[in-house]
Structure formats: structure tokens, C-alpha cells
């Protein structure tokens, strides 16, 4: 009996030790073995990670350890939501900016407005280098939930050498673009290239919509049953009906579109700034290829350009918001972000964007300085995923049914969009 009692006491003692061990293990998620703060970061692309991989940061902040991983943007939100429910999510996650409203509605993000204000108070000079888009693109209903360190619009790229051979000017409106496509569409190459498939959200469709004068409702719904929407649908129909694009473009992804342009199989395409360095590797800017802001819809005097972003959002469960802000300061620091911006995406650090070194690395940057400064952030809806699905349906309908009345298509799908407000 005595031996049994001793055995029971021993088992209980081991259980207590195990429980203590489990407590230590769970707390190590946010605090390292030496008491240092741990900030876990999910980058959406490896290209966004600074070249020094936080080496300088760790030298300057020995009390903070950054653990960086890459979770593709396409799956970042779903993975983050799932891990958030289990308490295993990172402190910072990089996402497509139009997911912010949905994430806020699920109570998964932290309002960091007070920490942003503190940064401005502590370091006004450094803070003022950051464009307002950095905070706007990571905000919802006037509260800041993260930081957009990199943003980028879609411009139009052109085979300058082909245009010159035919005596054509770079189009300033979309009717001129279609006329140029008709001339440049030959047996050797298509007049135009676009993304028509379902692999991506309708980012290119939305970008063209805004450049054509398209507007959004106060809740973030695109108003496609409008003059701009009708013109856009007709534009897609014309490209397919007149075979100015590859017939298989109806299923193309972004890679196939840019591959067509870079490979000499298309004369024009709407392509993001981040792809320009890849084009430059194959052709010389200003000689074989060039780029310009999106054309206007005929009859417009001017237009706007949408900007997209991949903000770093802060988990509502983070235990170290001050450390998170130090990571943001580091990622947006001129010396650090300059390297990423030159080889990849434009940045919201104005000092970098205005530097001679940046323009030298990206010779096209000077041609877009005014337009870039006046871009608008693509509005988003709380049900943004469904909005994008409907817009993809619109572009598919336009490419498949090229004789259908554009106004009829717009009315049908506007009704579906409006239902998302209910």
C-alpha cells in the first residue's frame, strides 16, 4: 500500500513537471529562450525579403529575433485565418490589400493606429519619408492594421520598335490602341495580350475599368453598368472578335500574358511595374520596348490609375506590437528597401523613389513619376472575394460571347454585385 502511494505521488510529480514544460513551450512562440522577443513574419514572395535577411536588424535589435518564412500571397489569407483560429499564426502576414476588410471583419487584425502615431511623434523626419499610401492601403474604416511597404500599378507596355516600323504613335486612348492592334496583328505576332483566365482575380480588368473612368460605390462595389463598364466589355469583345489577341487568352494567366510580350508574340499588354526588370533583361527600354500610363476612354480628358499593394498586416494576437513596429521601420528604411525596390516592386518610401540611383536602375521610373504620385488605391468590398469572382465572370462572358450587347452583360452582373451589399 505504501509503495502504491509513493508511486502515485511520483506520477503526480511528473505530471506537474510536464505541465510546466508545456507552459514554457507555448510561451516560447513570442519570447525566445534568452528572453528576446520573437516576431514571426510571413512574406508573400521571397523577392520581398531584404537581401541581408534581417542581419542588420538583429545587430541593431539584439532583443528581437525575426523568424521569416514565405507563404505565397495566393494562400496567405486562408493559411493565416486557419492558424489564427488555432493560435499558431505569425505576428505579421503579407497579403493582397483587397483582403484587408475581410480580415478585419473576422477580428484577426490589430489596430496599430496608436503605434503609427507614436512613430510619427518619435521620428517625424523618418516617418515623413513614407507616403500616405503605405497606411491607407492597410486601413479599414479609418483604422490602420498594417503597413504597405511596396505598391505598384499596372501600366501599358509596347513594342516601340514595331510601332516605329509602322509609323504608329503610342496610343493615348483605347480607340487608338485598338487601331494600333489591328495594324500590328500579323501572322508572326498578336496585336495585344491580356489575362483572360480564372487563375487570378480580375486585377487587370479592374485596372482597365478605372482607367476608362470606372467608379466604385461607397461600399467598394464596381459600377460596371455604366458608360465605362459598357466600353470595357466591348473592348474585350472587340479584341477577341477581331482576333487581335490569341484565342487561347481566354484561359491565360499573367505568366502567359507577359511571356507573349517578352517572347515577341504580342505588341502590347497591361503589365505591372514589377515585371519591367524582366522585360529589360530581354530588350532595351526606349529602343525595343517602352511603357506608358493607361490610355483614356475616348472622350475623356484625363483618367486615374489604380495602385495595388501587398501590405504587411498585424495579427490581433501579437504580444509584441512595439517589436512589430521596429520590423516595419526596418523594412521601410531607405537603405534596406532601396535594394528591394530596385530589383522588384516600387516602394512607399519617397526618398528611394525620388533618388537618382532608383531612376538609373529603373529608367522608366521617371516617365511615371506624376502618375505614380496620383494613383488611387483599388477600393475593396467586405466580400471582396465574391466581387472578384463576379468580375472574372464578366470578362469571361465578354470573351466568350463577343456579339452580346455589352449593356445587357453589364446589367446582369451589376445585379449580382449589388446583392453583395445585402
TrEMBL record:
Secretion signal span: 1-18
PANTHER family: ARABINOSE-BINDING PROTEIN-RELATED, DIACETYLCHITOBIOSE BINDING PROTEIN DASA
InterPro entries according to UniProt: Bact_solute-bd_prot1, SBP
Transmembrane segments: none
Protein name in UniProt: ABC-type glycerol-3-phosphate transport system substrate-binding protein
PROSITE patterns: PROKAR_LIPOPROTEIN
Keyword Cell membrane set for record: no
Lineage of source species: Bacteria, Bacillati, Bacillota, Bacilli, Bacillales
Amino acid at each position: 500500500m505504501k509503495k502504491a502511494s509513493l508511486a502515485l505521488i511520483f506520477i503526480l510529480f511528473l505530471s506537474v513537471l510536464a505541465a510546466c514544460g508545456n507552459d514554457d513551450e507555448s510561451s516560447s512562440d513570442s519570447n525566445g529562450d534568452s528572453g528576446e522577443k520573437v516576431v514571426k513574419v510571413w512574406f508573400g514572395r521571397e523577392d520581398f525579403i531584404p537581401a541581408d535577411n534581417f542581419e542588420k536588424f538583429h545587430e541593431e535589435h539584439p532583443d528581437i529575433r525575426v523568424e521569416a518564412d514565405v507563404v505565397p500571397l495566393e494562400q496567405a489569407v486562408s493559411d493565416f485565418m486557419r492558424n489564427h483560429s488555432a493560435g499558431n499564426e505569425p505576428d505579421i502576414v503579407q497579403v493582397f490589400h483587397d483582403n484587408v476588410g475581410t480580415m478585419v471583419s473576422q477580428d484577426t487584425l490589430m489596430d496599430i493606429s496608436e503605434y503609427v502615431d507614436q512613430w510619427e511623434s518619435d521620428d517625424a523626419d523618418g516617418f515623413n519619408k513614407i507616403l500616405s499610401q503605405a497606411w491607407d492601403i492597410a486601413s479599414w474604416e479609418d483604422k490602420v492594421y498594417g503597413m504597405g511597404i511596396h505598391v505598384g500599378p499596372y501600366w501599358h507596355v509596347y513594342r516601340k520598335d514595331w510601332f516605329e516600323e509602322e509609323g504608329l504613335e503610342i496610343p493615348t486612348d483605347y480607340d487608338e490602341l485598338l487601331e494600333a492592334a489591328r495594324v500590328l496583328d500579323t501572322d508572326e505576332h498578336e496585336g495585344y495580350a491580356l489575362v483572360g483566365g480564372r487563375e487570378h482575380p480580375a486585377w487587370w480588368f479592374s485596372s482597365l475599368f478605372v482607367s476608362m473612368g470606372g467608379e466604385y460605390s461607397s461600399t467598394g462595389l464596381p459600377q460596371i453598368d455604366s458608360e465605362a463598364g459598357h466600353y470595357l466589355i466591348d473592348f474585350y469583345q472587340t479584341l477577341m472578335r477581331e482576333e487581335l489577341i490569341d484565342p487561347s487568352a481566354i484561359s491565360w494567366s499573367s505568366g502567359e500574358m507577359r511571356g507573349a510580350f517578352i517572347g515577341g508574340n504580342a505588341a502590347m499588354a497591361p503589365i505591372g511595374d514589377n515585371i519591367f526588370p524582366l522585360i529589360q533583361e530581354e530588350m532595351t527600354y526606349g529602343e525595343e520596348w517602352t511603357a506608358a500610363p493607361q490610355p483614356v476612354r475616348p472622350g475623356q480628358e484625363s483618367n486615374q490609375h489604380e495602385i495595388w499593394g501587398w501590405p504587411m498586416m498585424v495579427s490581433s494576437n501579437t504580444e509584441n506590437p512595439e517589436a512589430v513596429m521596429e520590423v516595419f521601420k526596418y523594412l521601410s528604411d531607405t537603405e534596406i528597401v532601396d535594394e528591394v525596390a530596385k530589383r522588384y516592386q516600387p516602394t512607399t518610401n519617397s526618398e528611394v523613389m525620388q533618388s537618382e540611383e532608383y531612376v538609373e536602375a529603373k529608367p522608366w521610373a521617371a516617365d511615371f513619376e506624376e502618375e505614380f504620385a496620383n494613383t488611387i488605391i483599388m477600393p475593396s468590398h467586405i466580400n471582396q472575394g465574391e466581387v472578384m469572382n463576379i468580375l472574372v465572370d464578366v470578362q469571361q462572358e465578354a470573351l466568350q460571347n463577343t456579339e452580346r450587347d455589352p449593356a445587357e452583360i453589364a446589367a446582369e452582373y451589376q445585379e449580382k454585385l449589388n446583392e453583395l451589399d445585402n
